[in-house]
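Input (structure):
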């Protein structure tokens, strides 16, 4: 790092909380946001129940200008119990206390009033999370209309239609009411006349706040915390560079000592459970180029930067890769997808990572940058073993290139879990098939499974066996051979989510499901 860069470096995290400027230094930087709000600011309206990002009681909102040329205002809900405070650098955090327009019942926000009038609160512990989630949903829709992006919730009607209610329900899947008072909660959402109101969070945003945050976002950050623990001084360091080259230089200097944080939707849970401790953190949240999400029309692929959230990716895939769009709908809650990233899901290297079989099936490529410059790793070569990836100690992942399946090909993504939505996979699979001109004959197929070995993997023997065969012939006369190949290629283990035998059966059954759906697809194409 040059002397000039050191001179312009700041030693604090800047955020606004309900419009109040906060410069955070030292050990507080490494708190979860919910702990900072509750313990340091005494804003106890934000509740912590699961500390895993599952129940939504801790839901808060962040407001910030995105990295586009227009610097568009973005409003997002997220789970503050697993979000380290430093990830909120250069944002305005809005809590349940800030959602209100002032003091007293007469100053409650429209969402709070609707919850009260609809009897949407019983024990009340989940209520702040539901109010914040609804506020984020409606405020985001207001912004979309204002910014000209359009909104699916209509324009003229005061109340929501049934289709619109479904959209709100999907927005609330990350919030649990243990009293099961969902009828009153949904009634509250139906009664909010959001189109007829001023911007719900206008009292939380100003030109002054925006300019302050933008100016600080351009300044690199280093915070050192020293505190006593276990009889000795413990030091933690936070780095937040603003250029990829700076991040690479830091990784080269510290290598394994430096933990890279993207959205912390997994590591945040591990920290809360005492399973992961940080000494040096590299926060990538202020590097503009890592937020790039673009479509390369010539190569027919999506370019996904390391800091592109799963929410942004899902929105992009609605038209380009609809099967992935549907899959991401059950992947996680909006709170998790607003923080989590595709690159983080990949780099976590879990055998049951939900997006990885898809990336293997479409032959995605991973760009990394290190001391030797940039290089691209094929997905087939990315995993070296359990939780081991082909990224060296001095490299960081910068982008993923995702080929967009051709219109004539068929992509299928499957996930089996104990719950149908928002749950860890027991097993997952992805199939990409191109059919030859001859009806039903497989020209090319790629098959990938997760949760069946130490790493997600392609079933190469199955691919070779199926190529050039018709699905009907496989189903009628060669299915036992296919089943034997499937069971031979999988080597699952037993754990709390399922026995090895159960997983082996799922491998076979998911292929059966795929075959049946392909038969229906062939009928549809006739």
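Output (sequence):
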């Amino acid at each position: 790092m040059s002397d000039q860069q050191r001179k312009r470096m700041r030693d604090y995290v800047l955020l606004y909380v309900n419009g109040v400027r906060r410069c955070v230094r030292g050990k507080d930087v490494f708190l979860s946001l919910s702990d900072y709000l509750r313990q340091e600011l005494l804003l106890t309206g934000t509740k912590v129940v699961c500390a895993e990002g599952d129940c939504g009681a801790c839901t808060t909102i962040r407001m910030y200008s995105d990295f586009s040329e227009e610097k568009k205002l973005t409003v997002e809900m997220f789970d503050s119990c697993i979000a380290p405070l430093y990830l909120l650098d250069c944002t305005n955090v809005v809590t349940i206390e800030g959602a209100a327009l002032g003091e007293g019942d007469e100053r409650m926000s429209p969402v709070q009033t609707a919850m009260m009038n609809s009897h949407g609160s019983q024990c009340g512990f989940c209520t702040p999370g539901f109010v914040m989630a609804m506020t984020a949903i409606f405020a985001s829709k207001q912004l979309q209309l204002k910014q000209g992006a359009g909104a699916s919730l209509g324009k003229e009607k005061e109340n929501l239609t049934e289709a619109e209610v479904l959209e709100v329900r999907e927005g609330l899947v990350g919030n649990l009411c243990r009293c099961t008072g969902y009828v009153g909660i949904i009634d509250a959402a139906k009664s909010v006349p959001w189109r007829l109101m001023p911007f719900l969070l206008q009292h939380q945003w100003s030109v002054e706040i925006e300019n302050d945050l933008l100016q600080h976002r351009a300044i690199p950050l280093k915070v050192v915390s020293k505190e006593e623990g276990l009889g000795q001084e413990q030091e933690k360091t936070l780095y937040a560079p603003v250029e990829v080259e700076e991040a690479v230089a830091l990784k080269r200097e510290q290598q394994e000592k430096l933990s890279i944080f993207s959205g912390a939707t997994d590591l945040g849970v591990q920290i809360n459970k005492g399973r992961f401790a940080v000494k040096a953190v590299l926060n990538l949240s202020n590097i503009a180029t890592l937020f790039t999400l673009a479509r390369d029309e010539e190569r027919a692929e999506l370019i996904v930067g390391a800091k592109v959230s799963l929410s942004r990716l899902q929105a992009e895939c609605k038209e380009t890769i609809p099967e992935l769009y549907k899959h991401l709908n059950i992947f996680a809650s909006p709170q998790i997808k607003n923080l989590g990233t595709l690159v983080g899901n990949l780099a976590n290297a879990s055998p049951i990572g939900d997006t990885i079989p898809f990336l293997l099936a479409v032959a995605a490529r991973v760009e990394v940058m290190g001391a030797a410059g940039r290089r691209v790793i094929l997905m087939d070569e990315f995993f070296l073993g359990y939780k081991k990836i082909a990224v060296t100690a001095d490299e960081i992942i910068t982008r993923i290139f995702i080929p967009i399946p051709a219109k004539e090909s068929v992509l299928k993504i499957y996930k089996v879990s104990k719950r149908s939505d928002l749950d860890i996979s027991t097993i997952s699979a992805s199939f990409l098939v191109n059919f030859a001109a001859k009806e039903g004959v497989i020209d090319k197929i790629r098959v990938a499974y997760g949760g069946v070995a130490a790493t997600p993997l392609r079933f190469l023997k199955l691919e070779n066996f199926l190529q050039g065969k018709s699905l009907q012939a496989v189903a009628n006369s060669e299915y036992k051979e296919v089943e034997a190949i499937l069971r031979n290629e999988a080597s699952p283990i037993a754990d709390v989510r399922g026995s090895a035998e159960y997983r082996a059966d799922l491998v076979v059954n998911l292929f059966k499901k795929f075959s049946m759906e392909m038969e229906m697809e062939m009928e549809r194409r006739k």
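Notes: The chain has three domains: 13-214, 288-403, 413-525. The chain has a mean pLDDT of 91.
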